Amino acid sequence: MAGFRSLARQVRDPRCDLALRRYSLRKCLERFAPYGHRATWDHLCSRAGFGPEDRSPDPARLVAALDELEEARSVWLAYEVEFAERRKKEKHDGLRRPGSVDDWHRLTWGGFGVAWCDNPRVHPNEPLAEVLRRLISALEREPGCECPVCGGDRLIYKYDLAHEPSSGPVCTECGIVVPRPVLTPEALSASRRERRLLMSA
Question: From the CB of residue 23, how many other CB atoms can be counted at a distance below 10 Å?
Fold first, then answer.
């Protein structure tokens, strides 16, 4: 099975058939898709200027989409290296029990679904790398009460999400499932109240 870098080379290779280049970009999302496969594909297509169902997009647009994906992947891989080094130091210092960030991180290792968007048509508009930088910054500071990506303060707790964790607070503005570790207990409670109000309306 081809890895991310091998697939990326095929996307860039002008000698490859255009259908293979598009297919290879889609396959890259099996290795790294911050919003989930479908939502990340929708995001890349809209930012690069071709339709999700376009079977023969401009090769330059495919490469632009790949460039954005690769930049975001670099941001996430650097975070994972720092995360692994921190955990190693914590274990060396006797802290064996992982915290809530560690529990969340275990479910997103490799970058798949780190900013999961359950609705593939609703996702942040900013470049993927910027979204991940904002998310990482939130994971490294004290919990807050807003979406770390867009600053939205209306979060609704949802169940039966198509990803692990299968429930969580969803930002009504940018569509991401906000990682629980970045929110205060009060913000989580408020998201559950919003759900109850929505269900009773």
Answer: 15
Q: Is the CB of residue 119 less than 8 Å from the CB of residue 161?
A: no
- What residue ranges of the chain have pLDDT lower than 50? none
Cα–Cα distance, 100 to 75 (Å, whole number) = 21
Averaged pLDDT of the chain: 91
DSSP-assigned states of every residue in 93-118: TT--S--HHHHHHHHTTTSTTTT-BS
pTM: 0.90
Q: Which helix (H) or strand (E) holds 9?
A: helix 4-12
Residue 2 vs residues 11, 80, 87: alpha-carbon distances, Å = 13, 22, 30
Q: In terms of DSSP bridges, do strands 168-171 and 155-158 run parallel, antiparallel, or are they unpaired?
A: antiparallel
Question: From residue 106, how far is each of 3, 109, 113, 124, 130 by CA, in Å?
Answer: 21, 5, 12, 23, 22
Question: What pLDDT sits at residue 201?
Answer: 59
N residues, the chain: 201
| Residue 27, phi then psi, degrees to nearest 5 | -65, -30
